[in-house]
Amino acid sequence: MKRSIGLGLVLAVALTGCTTASGSYSSAGLAPIPGSITYNGQPRTKLTKSPVGSSFPHSFTDQWGRQVEEIYIIQPDRSLLIAERHYRPVFSLDDD
């Protein structure tokens, strides 16, 4: 029992070291699609009160009727980077 708890703690510390401390991403992010906040360029208003590196979600329906959720990260110049994009399934096999 003690050995499994110790192993769990070691793994938790190792995973913590895998996160980025600076909050910066080396990639350019995902390309915007219709419905994305940055589809027609960066927004004109700057997010001045939000800390650099913070993230927030944005959900919308794309042009094919799919539910999309994007995660944005605020960059040091206050521009937005699309870090993640998830498509929600249109139907579920569990529906009756």
From TrEMBL:
Q: Is Signal a UniProt keyword of this protein?
A: yes
Q: Which UniProt keywords apply?
A: Signal
Q: Which residues form the signal peptide?
A: 1-21
Q: What is this protein called?
A: Transmembrane protein
